[in-house]
Design a protein that fits this description.
14 helices, 2 domains, alpha/beta, Aspartate Aminotransferase, domain 2, binds pyridoxal-5'-phosphate, Aspartate Aminotransferase, domain 1, 4-stranded antiparallel beta sheet
């Protein structure tokens, strides 16, 4: 086992046990720990099978061997995106996928509506502005979800809007938005539906075709259980029409060129792809097919529920409103008088569990625990135990044991 084993002892003893285990490591390797447990909202843990595939010798990217591998990957991507659309792969991070989408769909001076609920919605709007688009912004308070009716009002007032940008899962606040309800509004207008699904796809249901979403963007390092470095973009028929007309400059990101290579008998990339990352991804996608999407979504739902109940049981508050909790990341409000950064430092350095802090205006105010991709009950319990122990270490007086008991009840 790569990480320290699950801790089975109840109550306060757990913390002694954790400390003891870390001590054992210091004392000369009685315990094998070759990494920390990443419980951040990306990058996430990569399964051994996928790591091994990625560590094999590099393939020639124009060879039959690579073509077969890439064909399998493309089928796997269509499976997880729940689409028949081509899903384009670029060596890049999620932000590259967002930028590529803007560069391919629009012409200078086009108008879009960017609906924001946090840092990543803001980022998408900024990319569009930097590319010279006219950007209407519809901002919702951080911690709350999009109200679809407000989008309707904007679309009624501004007939020039060509596309609406939505973040499915706002990673900075732990909020999930209702893509079905939003889609019902958008389909009453002649606009493109563009979704940033970087921290949701593969962990929270997103039915690209059934929900009629024109462009969906994600990246490899989150719920897709793969190393960072690849972005994926599903482009539907309406979006392809826009791509054909779009005049913004691009070269590397050119969707039409990417599709041309994808449509070869054995698919390829226009340029040298990240061959080893694609090999790793292929294995992760196989694992996802073996598990099945419904089972994966249920696993995420169950683990997220346990995290939320565990955290609340410790006497802490969740940052997101209760009608929009994310199943891939939980934002925990740092209690008054507690130093959230100190808690995270202790969790990482003493207990080998890494969680994230708040971003932008939420810096120091929240702790974000990721629970997406290759994650199980033991990981969640270990993370909650480390959180409980670190909270006690910084003088938190709440009954952290109650939260652990609650989480264990849920996880059986
Ligand atoms: C919702 C969302 N969009 C975009 C991004 C940017 O992805 P990357 O860091 O891969 O550029 C992230 C990263 O956390 C994200 O969570």
């Amino acid at each position: 086992m790569r990480l320290f084993p699950p801790l089975k002892i109840q109550g306060r003893d757990i913390f002694i046990q954790i400390r003891h285990m870390c001590l054992m490591k210091l004392k000369g390797g009685l315990l094998v720990i070759d990494g920390k447990l990443l419980m951040i909202p990306g990058p996430t843990m990569v399964p051994e099978r996928a790591l091994q595939e990625g560590s094999k010798q590099v393939l020639f990217h124009r060879s039959t061997e690579f073509g077969k591998l890439f064909a399998e990957v493309n089928e796997g991507l269509q499976y997880v995106f729940q689409t028949q659309n081509p899903v384009l792969t670029f060596p890049a991070v999620g932000t590259g996928g967002l930028e590529a989408t803007v560069a391919n769909l629009f012409s200078p001076g086009d108008t879009i509506l960017s609906v924001t609920t946090g840092v990543f919605g803001e980022r998408f709007a900024t990319i569009a502005k930097n590319f010279g688009l006219n950007v209407y912004k519809l901002d919702f308070p951080w911690g709350q979800a999009i109200e679809p009716d407000m989008i309707k009002k904007q679309l009624e007032q501004h007939s020039e809007i060509k596309a609406v940008f939505v973040t499915h899962n706002e990673t900075s606040t732990g909020v999930v938005n209702d893509l079905v309800a939003i889609g019902k509004i958008l389909r009453q207008f002649n606009v493109l539906y563009v979704v940033d699904a970087v921290s949701s796809l593969g962990g929270i249901d997103l039915q690209t075709d059934v929900w009629d979403i024109d462009v969906v963007i994600t990246a490899s390092q989150k719920a897709l259980m793969s190393p960072p470095g690849l972005t994926f973009i599903s482009v539907g028929p309406r979006a392809w029409e826009a791509v054909e007309k779009a005049k913004l400059p691009k070269y590397y990101w050119d969707f039409i060129n990417a599709r041309k290579y994808l449509e070869k008998k054995l698919p390829q990339n226009p340029y040298t792809p990240a061959v080893t990352l694609i090999a790793s991804l292929n294995e992760a996608l196989k694992m996802m097919r073996e598990e099945g999407m419904d089972v994966i979504f249920n696993r995420h739902q169950r683990l997220a529920h346990a995290v939320r109940k565990g955290v609340e049981g410790m006497g802490l508050n969740l940052f997101a409103a209760s009608n929009c909790y994310s199943n891939t990341v939980t934002a925990i409000t740092v209690p008054e008088g507690i130093d959230g950064d100190a808690v995270r430092k202790i969790m990482s350095e003493q207990y080998n569990v890494v969680v994230a802090g708040g971003q932008a205006s939420l810096k120091g105010k929240i702790i974000r625990m990721g629970h997406m991709g290759y994650v199980n009950e033991d990981n969640v319990l270990t993370a909650l135990q480390a959180l409980a122990a670190a909270l006690q270490d910084v003088g938190y007086k709440g009954h952290v044991e109650d939260g652990l008991t609650k989480a264990k009840e849920i996880l059986g």
